[in-house]
Amino acid sequence: MNAMDALSMSKAECRNVYLQDGGEPYDKIVIGAVIPKRVLGGSPEILIMKRAADEKFLPNVLEIPGGKVEDIDRTVLDAVKREVSEETGMEVKKVIGAIKPFSYAAERKITKADGGELNVWSSTLQLNFVCEVAKHDLVVNPEEHSEGKFINRSELEETDLTEQMRAVVEDAFEWVEADSSSVPVLAS
């Protein structure tokens, strides 16, 4: 299945179509938004955000913008637009491509009614899309991230990313470089 097809699906449809190796649906569907830009005469850059220090899951970790597909989102595309707007203040004009998705499992502790703790595992599928935005005027939402910046490929080596996020960003640079005509060139 082409990942771009997921854009028109609801969260429930994604959970029915994208299954784990054992045939079970993922507990969560999240999106990642690759936001590239190219300055006239320069190399392509991709937006990287640093998660807020008080985030429960992976605080202070660098990532591309993104988040959960919520019940309020009619489609995955709605989630992409909402998450990009909430986290960056940018408006998605259109989704111009898809990057390979990845999945992960996370453990969290929940408190039972008797006060005891229980470890619960949940599975997540992250669908990643390349987005063209109306303007590259970044406004970081401090509730979700402490900073954001555009990096080029040479800065990627020095950027502290999880293994899976590094793979997404490397794939994104390959996509942008192979299809550079899709990335608008900015005057400055």
Count the strands? 9
Tally of helical runs: 4
| Percent in helix | 10-25%
User: Which series of helices and strands comes N to C?
Assistant: HEEEEEHEEEHHE
- If you compute it from the alpha carbons, what radius of gyration comes out, rounded to the nearest whole angstrom? 17 Å
Strand content: 35-45%
Q: Summarize model confidence as the mean pLDDT.
A: 90
Low-confidence stretches: none
- Write down the overall geometry: globular
CA(first)-CA(last) distance: 38 Å
Most strands sheet: 5 strands, mixed
Computed structural class: alpha+beta
Overview of the molecule:
Strands 2, 3, 4, 8 and 9 form a 5-stranded mixed beta sheet that branches. It is built from 4 helices and 9 strands; from the N terminus they run αβββββαβββααβ. Helices cover 21% and strands 38% of the residues. It has 188 residues and is an alpha+beta fold. The termini are far apart. A hairpin with a 5-residue loop joins strand 6 and strand 7. The longest helix is centred in the C-terminal third of the chain and has 16 residues, at 163-178. The mean pLDDT is 90.
